[in-house]
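U., I forgot to send this yesterday:
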Amino acid sequence: MRRTRYRGLAKTHLGHVLTATAVTLIRFDAWWNDTPLARTRTSRLAALELIA
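Result:
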């Protein structure tokens, strides 16, 4: 969250804390239910290794 709609430092900090809490809850829920969050990116070098 690089931009915020608030001007004050306290409100901006609160927005960052709430965003971090939401992300943590989403990750905890995925861990609890054994649901993968997303596939990780395969690098070009690893992709070439799979071909060979």
